[in-house]
Design a protein that fits this description.
This protein has nine helices and 15 strands.
C-alpha cells in the first residue's frame, strides 16, 4: 500500500472534493489516458490507476472509509476495476468512450450492453437553415410591403433528382459498406475489443455507388443558381421578428430537401412617428392661442392626415387619442391607436400689434396665475 498514490492526487483533487468535481476530473483524465487515444507506454497503467481512484471516491461508503483510513482501509473492499470494471458507473464510462470513439459499436466484451451508432440515418436529410437581416422603412412595417431580393441557393438537379447519377440504372449498392452507409473498425486493447463506426468514406453515408455521373450537375446532385425572390413583409411587423422563406436554406443531403431562410426584420426609425407596442406616438406643435381657445387641426398619421379637435384649455404635454390609427397586431389583427402629444409653443418675438393685444389682455385680468400661486404661501 505504501507505493500507491493518493487517490485525490491521482484525480488532481484536494480532499473534500464534491461528487461533481470527482466526476468531472475522472472524465477528463479518462479521455486523456485511454489506451485507444493515448499511445504513451504508461497510458494503460495511468488509465487503470485513474479508474481505481474513481471507483473508490465515487462510492460514498468507500470514500468515507478511504478519507478516514487511507489505502489501509481498502483491504476490506474488492476492487471492481480488477474484475472488469465491476464497480464502475457504466453511464459515465460509456459517455467517456463514446466521446472519443465517435459512437461505439458495442461494449459486449465487458458484459454491459451495446451502445451502437449504426442506426444513424443514411437516408434523405433536410439541410440547415440560413439567416439574414433586412432593413425596412417605418411605414412599410405599418402597411406591409413586398421586397425583391437576390438569393444564391443550391437547387436539386432536376435531371437526376439529386442522385448525381446519369440514370437510375447507374445507381448500385456501395460495395464498401454494403448499403449501410457506415463502416466498422475494430481495435483490440487490454480491456477488450472495441468497435468504432463511422461514415463510409466511399459513398459518404448514402449507401449507394454511382457508376456514371449526371452530365448536368457533374455528379453533385444539385446546381447553384441565383434567383430573384419576392419577400412579403406582413403589416405590423416589428424589429426582431422574422419572415420565413421555405426551401432557401442550405441544401439537404442524400436527396433531402433544403433548409429554410429566416429573414430578421429591422425597422428604421421615423422622423416624427415612434412606436410603442401597437400604438403610434407623435408630437404636434400648436400656438398658445389655439391651446387656450381650442382649434381644429389636420394631424399626420400613418394613413394620411386626420382632423383632430384641440379642446379649449389644452395643456402643454397633454395627449389626445386617435382611435384605430395605430398598427395591426400580427397575431390578433387588432389595430392600435395613435396618441398625439400637444406641444404648446410660446412666441419669442411679437409684432407691435400682437404686443398691444397681449398687454390689453393682461391689464383686463384682475389676478394673474402667479398672484394665485403666491396666495398659497400666505
Amino acid at each position: 500500500m505504501a507505493d500507491k498514490r493518493d487517490y485525490y492526487d491521482v484525480l488532481g483533487l484536494s480532499k473534500g472534493a464534491s461528487e461533481d468535481d470527482i466526476k468531472k476530473a475522472y472524465r477528463k483524465l479518462a479521455k486523456q489516458y485511454h489506451p485507444d487515444v493515448n499511445k504513451a507506454p504508461d497510458a494503460e497503467a495511468k488509465f487503470k490507476e485513474i479508474n481505481e481512484a474513481y471507483e473508490v471516491l465515487s462510492d460514498p461508503q468507500k470514500k468515507a472509509t478511504y478519507d478516514q483510513f487511507g489505502h489501509a482501509g481498502m483491504d476490506g473492499f474488492q476492487s471492481g476495476f480488477s474484475q472488469g470494471f465491476g464497480g464502475m458507473n457504466m453511464d459515465d464510462l460509456g459517455d467517456i468512450f463514446s466521446s472519443f470513439m465517435g459512437g461505439m459499436g458495442g461494449f459486449s466484451d465487458f458484459g454491459f450492453g451495446s451502445r451502437s451508432s449504426g442506426s444513424r440515418r443514411t437516408g434523405p436529410v433536410k439541410g440547415d437553415n440560413r439567416y439574414m437581416t433586412m432593413d425596412i422603412e417605418f411605414l412599410d412595417a405599418v402597411h406591409g410591403v413586398d421586397k425583391l431580393i437576390n438569393l444564391t441557393v443550391d437547387k436539386m438537379c432536376t435531371h437526376c433528382d439529386g442522385t448525381g447519377a446519369a440514370s437510375k440504372s447507374d445507381i448500385e449498392t456501395c460495395p464498401t459498406c454494403r448499403g449501410t452507409g457506415r463502416v466498422t473498425r475494430q481495435s483490440r486493447t487490454a480491456f477488450g475489443i472495441f468497435q468504432q463506426q463511422s461514415v463510409c468514406p466511399d459513398c459518404k453515408g448514402t449507401g449507394k455507388h454511382v457508376k456514371k455521373i449526371c452530365p448536368h450537375c457533374h455528379g453533385q446532385g444539385y446546381s447553384t443558381v441565383t434567383e430573384q425572390v419576392e419577400v412579403t413583409i406582413p403589416a405590423g411587423i416589428n424589429t426582431g421578428q422574422q419572415v420565413r422563406l421555405q426551401g432557401y436554406g442550405e441544401r439537404g443531403t442524400n436527396g433531402g430537401p433544403n433548409g429554410d431562410l429566416y429573414i430578421e426584420v429591422r425597422v428604421k426609425s421615423h422622423k416624427f412617428f415612434t412606436r410603442e407596442g401597437n400604438n403610434i406616438h407623435i408630437s404636434v406643435p400648436i400656438s398658445s392661442l389655439d391651446a387656450t381657445l381650442g382649434a381644429t387641426v389636420d394631424v399626420p398619421t400613418a394613413y394620411g392626415d386626420v382632423e383632430l379637435t384641440i379642446p379649449a384649455g389644452t395643456q402643454p404635454g397633454q395627449q389626445l387619442r386617435l382611435k384605430g390609427y395605430g398598427i395591426k397586431d400580427l397575431r390578433t389583427k387588432n389595430v392600435g391607436d395613435q396618441y398625439v402629444q400637444i406641444d404648446v409653443e410660446i412666441p419669442k418675438k411679437l409684432s407691435k400689434e400682437e404686443k398691444e393685444l397681449y398687454e390689453k389682455l393682461a391689464n383686463r385680468k384682475k389676478e394673474s396665475v402667479f398672484d394665485r400661486f403666491k396666495k398659497n404661501f400666505k
